[in-house]
User: What shape does this take?
Amino acid sequence: MHYFRYRGNVLYCDSVRVKDIAEKAGTPVYIYSHRTLIEHYRKIKNAFASLRPLICFSMKSNSSLALCRALVKAGSGLDIVSGGELFKALKIGADPGKIVYASVGKTPDEISRAIKAGILFFNVESIPELCAIEKMCGRLKKRAKISLRVNPEVDAHTHHYITTGTQENKFGIDIDTVTKIFRQKDCYRHLDIVCLHVHIGSQITESGPFVKAVRKVSSLIRLLRSEGHKIDYLNIGGGMGIVYRKERPQTAADFAKAVAPLIKKLGVKLILEPGRFISGNSGILVAKVLYVKKSKSKNFIITDAAMNDLARPSLYGAYHEIVPVHRSSSSRARMKYDVVGPICESGDFLAKGRRLAAVKEGELLAVMGAGAYGFAMSSNYNARPRSAEVMAIGRNFYVTRKRETYADLVRGERIPGVLK
Amino acid sequence: MHYFRYRGNVLYCDSVRVKDIAEKAGTPVYIYSHRTLIEHYRKIKNAFASLRPLICFSMKSNSSLALCRALVKAGSGLDIVSGGELFKALKIGADPGKIVYASVGKTPDEISRAIKAGILFFNVESIPELCAIEKMCGRLKKRAKISLRVNPEVDAHTHHYITTGTQENKFGIDIDTVTKIFRQKDCYRHLDIVCLHVHIGSQITESGPFVKAVRKVSSLIRLLRSEGHKIDYLNIGGGMGIVYRKERPQTAADFAKAVAPLIKKLGVKLILEPGRFISGNSGILVAKVLYVKKSKSKNFIITDAAMNDLARPSLYGAYHEIVPVHRSSSSRARMKYDVVGPICESGDFLAKGRRLAAVKEGELLAVMGAGAYGFAMSSNYNARPRSAEVMAIGRNFYVTRKRETYADLVRGERIPGVLK
Assistant: This one.
């Protein structure tokens, strides 16, 4: 569900013509639909309404200040993974009491900043990290609330790069060790360990693995409580899948129906960390066709967007729907294309073997579902300035990030005098 | 071959202790050896000395201003792939007469800038691009020299993302079409089409595919000359492999021995576009160990460098050797580790299942062979500021790029008033 829709043959974002945005902001450009964004946030909120959960939007999927600000204004908390995201969160006036901080590699400086900011929870991934937070709290004479990330050993059946709940990967703490930590929790004099966290991966389309993980954690909570430990919160992470192609992911309501009863029985405050579910279909990447090239065996559409703008097709083999910004009214023949960018490697593609209505140079194409892990992963590879970002709100649109210039590419660079 | 070597147990870059650099510039940090860089440039230059070729360093592998400046000062030309790289090339005072410009997706603005700068050659990838350059030359009332990139249909037997000389990929023009273009070259009134270009891929370790490609192009040149066309130049691209692990790539001398005789017979001016061969082993990425984490089935070293700093392991499954910056003199047990970064996805790793001498928190590790496609592909994923870059020259070292700050992460961002 999203508000990138045709009126006649013209693609709109909310009530703005995509073409108008591209003309004003240039291409390639990321365009976000405020309405889609907020509606997805509300879908989860409403689905779990009976539990009054804390919903922390996962900034790693998209840390655009404007986008995060819109969600915070709608009541969302934030799930951060770095000092940089903490900086951004505070910059947009987010309530630190609604910020949870995950990452297997928090540095002392990052830990210190997060303690000082007074965030709600550190999602802790290892005993050495627990010790590092304890030590920093001691030095700062502050307390911190801790959520232990449990590795439930549940396979989420998703891309192996985004599966996070199995023994084989770097995330979380096994159940035995979690138990041990609780039994020794008096050693951590500055820490309140009162939450468990479980996050099994990303782009998961069925509730089965979630239910399995929550069941495992529920048993653990019961065991810990029977030993007298206090567990007030349960954070079940994010990972809800969205539609890129023909996936039929569970709806938020289905998901809640499967999971909420388990949580209710536990009597814990629920925390959710949706990222892609909220931002994924809220954004598109609009590119201009530079050339149409026919080789002996293939047709190529060469656009001005490339793998530096959107890494997902190269990195994960991800599928993104591609549609024209202006549909032809005549019935143009459909042809099979590789849609590629200008970058000098074969891994630079947006789509392979895609059937599209015949395309001409200068036309605009929209790469759908680019709101999550789109701009967030973009780079300057091939010395390409990063694209602009625009948000449509109702009938208006706003450039929320200026396109980078060539001067931006060399910011901070210096040539030693001996080389001059 | 490189000048990152131990003296006793201490790793040096040229004559500077790597540890001293890391202390001054922080971690993660890219460190380049000026001596390694220049020696690799000279290796190719010397190997082909009898042909007096134009060597154009491929900036896409590393467009650090200091690094490119060092090569330009040593006499190198530049191979660029974008307007951004042209901007950088001009910024360091490169001679436009030694710049060749490849890319399947040159925009009108980029073409215009390159014509105005007076670059040596456009490496042209398609007929539509040829038309675009012709048109722009007409508008600017200028001429341009053209090299046609021939797709020789030779498989370089390398990673499919960096194979570029087969029918299946977006690069180059098939031989029949090249012939046709020459026969119609009078249509392109502003263009001097006097060079052929062939580039079959990257990290190729044997001369066989190169020889095959050059043979094919040689036949084509003979055919074209027999029809009265002038071919003064041949650009055989880059793609020479380097040692990451146990590869035994051809030396520059071996390569020249196999290829030079073929070129000599043709009587053309040779252009070479080495990138990785020059920059690859000239750089390392130094990271600090944040945590050592033991899970049930694995040991993890969590460093402060991640896939946003070095994408190659995630993107290509690339192998990079990892060594301690300070070797332990005691014989520490060797253990098997996954070396990973702080980024919240399983795809974030630098090495998997690597046997290393037992590592402690706070120690420094060097990721070798990170000079090519290292910083060039780095991003701000997970809101991580990009690392600093440093070059050692003899006994001194210079910060050639400042580490990004949190403020850099939000540069150019704006929050619309309605969201405040």
Observations:
- Residues 208-226 of chain B form the longest helix (19 residues).
- The mean pLDDT of chain B is 94.
- Chain B touches chain A through 105 residues (CB under 8 Å).
- Residues 181 and 187 of chain B are 9 Å apart (CA to CA).
